[in-house]
Amino acid sequence: MHKNSSNHTAPAWSLRFLQWYCPDYLLESIEGDLEEQFEQDVSSIGLRKARLQYTKNVFLFFRPGIVLRNKFSLQLFNSSMLQNYWKVAIRNMARRKLYAFINSFGLSIAIACCVLIYLYVMDELSFDQFHENKDRIVRIHSTSFDEEKYKEGDPLPYNTSAWLPGVLADVMQDELAEVEYVTRFNSGTEGVMQHDDKIFKQSTAFVDSGFFRMFSFPVIKGSTHKIFRHTNEAVLTSAVAEKFFGKEDPIGKTFSFFINEKADYVVAAVIEAPPANSSIDFEMILPSSSRPYFENSAKQWNNFSYPTFVQLRKTSDLVTFKPHLDSLIQKYMGPSYDRTRVREKIPAEIKVGEFDYIPLTKIHLAPHISWHKVSDKKYSWILAGIGLLILIIACINYIVLSLATSNARKTEIGVRKVVGARPGQLINQFSFESLLLSFMAMFTGIVLVVTLLPMFNEYTAKSIVLTFGNMSTVLAMMLILTITIGLTAGFYPAFILSSFKPVTILKGKNSARLQTPFAKAMVVLQFTLSTLLIVSSVIMYRQMEYITSKDLGYDADKVIAIETNAGWNRTSDEMIPLFRNALSQERDVISVAGTSASFNRGWSRYGWQVADENKWAYVFRVDEAYLDLFSIELLEGRNFDNTADSSAVIVNEAFVRDMGWTDPLSEYVNWQEDTVGKGSPVIGVMKDYNFLSLESEVEPLFLGSKRPDFGRLTTILVKLGPGKTPEQLSKVEQKWKQTFPDKPFEYSFVDEDVARQYQSHERWMKIMGISTSFAIIISCLGLFGLAGIESLNRVKEVGIRKVMGASVFQLMVLLNRKYIMLAFIAFAIAAPISWWMMKQWLDAFKYRITLSWELFGITLLTGLAIALITVSYHALKAARTNPADTLKYE
Amino acid sequence: MSKEYLGEFEELVLMMVGILQEDAYGNAVVELIKERVGREVNLSAVHVTLYRLEDKGLVKSEMGGATQLRGGRRKRIFKITNAGLAMLQTMKEMRIDLWKLVPQLKMVGI
């Protein structure tokens, strides 16, 4: 009797949707009413439209007036059934401790990963948000034509730079109505700071007085109100104040600061150090006018060395700012742009240059404009991607394991159904169980986050701390994540489990092999993701190994670089022979040399014209001991002579190639475009060595020795002999203190400096490594659980096979065959994807490993081995059990 | 007696429940409104209104009357309560009182 009178049926999934959201006590009548209307519609407007109408109606019923009535009903049912669900869930977990552990631990790791990544992204987005006037502060940058890019066919052949003419700040302040305050900001200049007996190397920033009106760095002591009226005032951060003045009040105290020459400053204020998420960072601040060469550079339009920040008036409009800036630039830079256009033959449709601005809050994520703390959104995406992968893998574990263990639950479901449980209630029950589990996982997750945070900070070069403030958002985030995971992971199993037919279950037709294609697909997906991560991290590891062990063409072993800290002048040059003499008696010191910049400690590059062609090369000034110290090979010619060779240069092979010389020793390098003389004579050719990072090729380079035009010898290199390094170092330090009592002994190992170039790659390799191991752990846990259940289900089959004479080996093959297949499929999917991804990554290096199939082969074998080891435990156990034990109770 | 305010649509639905007597359920109300007032209303809107009226105690409901047409599902039959009747009554009287206060407007021709 209770049968639909017509053959036309309403769309099943909309009905299910209705059943899902509709409170039980209303469901029947609403369903009925809808059905009735549907039948009417079928006869009046046709089946297709009627079905559409039905679905539309179901969605219209999805309104607060209906859905919110659930709360009331949920509470009702909670009080009666919740206890039971709780008890059953706990018993189930207690019965299968291992699987409960696998599930919750996997989810914990996933939750912890996601939270850490969330913290990372939040930190990236929080940059420079703490300034009160952040919406009105912009940084100006210049865009200029780049011939190289133009030749390569780049549609936007420009370079963008935040380093601007020093005079721009003054001119903008005077001539642009929109500008309220303006400041130049140069940071990271190092000098020697002295107060009484305290002498340390100290880095300083140079700014204008507008800086303190624009940016919100709280003043702790003193005042920045009338700062820099006197050009000998200084502002310290509290750390620096404490370092030099200890407990005493620093305000009004005097210290000396030495960059190129010594100058005295009075401490005017102590301010709070900028937080880690500030693009503007400094340890102490001096007025811009104290910056070396300020008098020369600050009035020029062709000296680009001052980053410039502007605060606009409240009333002013950004729309008018840009055109006004444009016309200002046209006024001052126009003629120079025109000259450049003629000289470099820049076509009319290309701009020579222009000035633009970027809001303060966008600086951090604008990697195309170089800045010392800039980052790339790409990293956030990569991390988010990794987090998502791990999350998916963990959820899959839950789904697959719940399906696989469903066998044991079938009887329970059957009984519940017979007693009168509705599908909705069963779905609720299983969702409740998965929520319970994910909440358990959440607590472990919190512990994991707290313990992993220091390591995470190290790898991502962040300094995120869990404070009371962000803890609440983290907890909220965790809660959301937990509920989402609980519901999504529990959703599918809940539906499958609640759809079992009680009759079949209770009759005892139980078979729970891993038959569902869904579960198989999930395992393949999981393995694919893991393989992807394995391949990526193996390749990254190989590349980093290649880079760190590649022969660079020089030997930097046990070479230390000491900064002279005497400035860019003659004093520096003269310190080298002095120190060489001082160390001449030391048996542990092999040689001492000077250079204008040690490896990865800066460089300089010159450009000049040869027969109308633009040439450029890197230039370092070195002394005659340099080549020997680094064992750089001379192919032709000779080293610098101690006495002569004032303008002579030694070039590298790349330089010779670039010039197209056949007899380099008879050539001259006219790098200063001397119209009278021929330039610098070439006295030697050295073998190419990687003086830059391996991300680029060996570029043209020449070394000069005597004339200050090549640079100043600001770094002393000391090569130590065999023996215990710490003792040798203390001897060198002792000599340094004797020879230069007023200079700090600041040294670094050259090979460490070189390695630091690859820091960010190294970091990503570590991050990949960690996430790979997480992914592998979670997948293996899942596979382990799955294999366990599978072998348990086939225990009788195995017993019978054994009785019939199957060997342990045959049984192993039987039980493992499927997983091997799945692993192969996963590999076939993962290999091309990871190959493509890694090709992108490797493109950043000019020197790189080739992606060989051998590499993928190794990964495949590793993956297979891991999978096999994981599943074999159970297979072996099943294959070795005495068949009598498994078969006897039949 | 509830002083609660009754919306226009609520009043309409309440009225229909009163008219339909023993046969007042969702679809019937929709049909009747269409027939009597000539207004196309949505089933879900009627349902929500009925539940709201029930919350206010103006109607009560019970399950009953399964037909084959409904796939064997029972109807939720709504019945107007005394409170509901009183509410309709007061609203009607209030309207008449107010109408009396309106100056004798006449529909004047052109």
TrEMBL record, chain A:
Gene Ontology annotations for the cellular component aspect, listed alphabetically: plasma membrane
Question: What's in the keyword line of the UniProt record?
Answer: Cell membrane, Membrane, Transmembrane, Transmembrane helix
Q: Which InterPro entries match?
A: ABC3_permease_C (IPR003838), MacB_PCD (IPR025857), Macrolide_Exporter_MacB (IPR050250), Permease_put_prefix (IPR047699)
Q: Please give the superkingdom of this protein's source.
A: Bacteria
Q: Source species, please?
A: Chryseotalea sanaruensis
Q: Any idea where the ABC3 transporter permease C-terminal domain is? A: 386-489, 773-883
Any GO MF annotation of the entry:
transmembrane transporter activity
State the membrane topology: Multi-pass membrane protein
Q: Which residues cross the membrane?
A: 98-121, 379-401, 435-456, 476-497, 518-541, 764-786, 819-838, 850-871
Q: Quote the subcellular location field of this record.
A: Cell membrane
- Where is the MacB-like periplasmic core domain positioned along the sequence? 101-319
Spell out the protein name for this chain.
ABC transporter permease
Automatic annotation (TrEMBL), chain B:
Q: Name one Pfam family in it.
A: PadR
Gene3D superfamilies membership: Winged helix-like DNA-binding domain superfamily/Winged helix DNA-binding domain
User: Which residue windows are transmembrane per the record?
Assistant: none
Name all Transcription regulator PadR N-terminal domain ranges. 20-89
Q: Which domain of life is it from?
A: Bacteria
Stored InterPro entries = Tscrpt_reg_PadR_N, WH-like_DNA-bd_sf, WH_DNA-bd_sf
- The entry's protein name is PadR family transcriptional regulator
Species name: Chryseotalea sanaruensis
